[in-house]
Amino acid sequence: MNIHNYLTKAKYLSLGLLISGATLAADKNPSSKFIKEGVWRGVFTVSESQVPFNFELKGKDAEHAVFTLINGSRRDNFHVKAIGKDSVYIKMNTYDAALVAKIEDDGKISGEYRSLVPGFRGNSLPFIAEYGKSYRFVEPGKDVAPKADLSGKWEIKTYSKEAVPASIAILKQKGNKLTGVVMTVVGDTRELEGTVQGDEFALSGFTGPSPFIIKGKINADGSISGEEGFGIYKNLKFDAAKNETVELPDPYKLTFLKEGYKKLDFSFPGIDGKAVSLSDNKYKGKVVIVEIIGTWCPNCTDQTVFLSPWFNKNRNRGVEAIAIGFEQKDSLDYAKYTLGKLKEKYAINYDIAFGGLADKKLVAQKLPALNKFIAFPTTIIIDRNGDVREIYTGYTGTVTGKYHKDYEKKFNQLLDKLIAEPAPESAAVKYTALHPGN
C-alpha cells in the first residue's frame, strides 16, 4: 500500500556481525533457551492501544525453526536466529524490520518490533507473547453474542486533515469470528482477523510490515463507526455503511500519460551495476511490463509474488519486465541490499533498477510522462512498438477474491493480445542480424 510508509529492513554491518557471532555462541551452548514449539498469542502496545497477533513456532532450535504469522487463512513464514542464551532475532524477510525478543523465565516472550532502516530512529513497537493461546481478541468461553452480522461490503468514510484514499471493506462473519480486508485505490490491508462481541468489533493484521488494527461499534441503524490504527504512524476515525454496489475508482484510469506522450522514457542504475533503460536493445520489439515498487511496501511484495512466476513461465514469448524500486534510504548500496534480497527470495529473473527515495513526488519527477504518481505499486504495460498501452494503479491481492481474479484475467488477456501483435520491422531486422540462420 502507498498510504503508509510501512517499516522495513537492514541494520548496520556491526549489528549483522553481532547477531552472527551471538547465534554461533547460542547454538554451541546447550543451556540456551528457545521458543517453545506450538501456537502463541502476541500483543503489540501502540500508544494506549493493544494490537493482538498470532503465530506458530515449529522446530526445537534456531537451525530448524520456522516462525509463522497467522492471519485468518494467510500464513507468512520467517527464519529465526538465536542471540545469546535467551534471545531471538526474527527478520521480517524482505521488509527492513525484525522482531527482537527475550525468552523470559516464566516462558513468555517480550521484546519489540524494530525498524532496521539506517537512520530511521525511534520506530519500534513493544510486544509480549504467551504460549498456547490461539485466540485473537477474546478468550474461549468469554464471547458475547453478536448483535449483528457484519458480512458484506462496506463503504468507508474516513476523517482526516489530509486527503485519504477512498476505501471499502469486505467482511465475513461466522458467529463471533470476523475476517476481511480493507481495500483502497492504492492497495489492500491483506487479510485481517478479529471478532464481533455484542455491538463492538475488532480486526487486526500483522504479516511482517507494521501491524494494523480496526475497531469500533455497531450503531442502532446498522452502520459502524470506529478507528483504524496503522502501527506507529497514525490513527484515523471512520464511519461505514453496508453498500453491496459500492466500487472504488477504476484503477485502470487513475494514472495515465500526459497529453502528447505515447511512450515512457527512463534510465536508472540497476542493482547488478548496469544501467536499465527502455532504450536498451533487449527491450526492442518486446512487450515490457514496468513495475514501480518498494521493498517496504506489502502490496508491492504481493505483486512481485504474482509477477515473478508469471514472467518465469512466459519469458520466452517475447516479453520482458523491469522493476524500479524506490527505497526508504536514498542509497544505491542500500538498494542493492534490499532489492537484492527481494530478487533472491522471489526468484526474480527480470531487471531490477533503483529509482531513488520512496517519495511519490520524486517518482513523478523522474517519470515526467505520467500525469501523477499515486501508488506503490503501479504497473505499466508497454507494447512492441514502445507505446504505453495500460497503467494499473495499486494492487488487489488474492484476499480480495473476485477483484484479484478480475485483475489476473485482464492482465493475461492484455498480455496475450500484445504478445500476439507483430514486432516492428526494425526490431525483426535487428533480431535476424544478431541471430543469423534463425
Automatic annotation (TrEMBL):
CDD domains linked to this entry: TlpA_like_family (cd02966)
Keywords: Signal
Pfam families xrefs: Redoxin
Cited Gene3D superfamilies: Glutaredoxin
InterPro entries, sorted: Redoxin, Thioredoxin-like_sf, Thioredoxin_domain, Thioredoxin_ResA/DsbE_sf
Annotated ranges, domain Thioredoxin: 257-420
Presence of keyword Membrane: no
Signal peptide location: 1-25
Top-rank taxon: Bacteria
Cited PANTHER family: THIOL:DISULFIDE INTERCHANGE PROTEIN DSBE, THIOREDOXIN-LIKE PROTEIN HI_1115
Protein name: Peroxiredoxin
Source organism per UniProt: Mucilaginibacter lappiensis
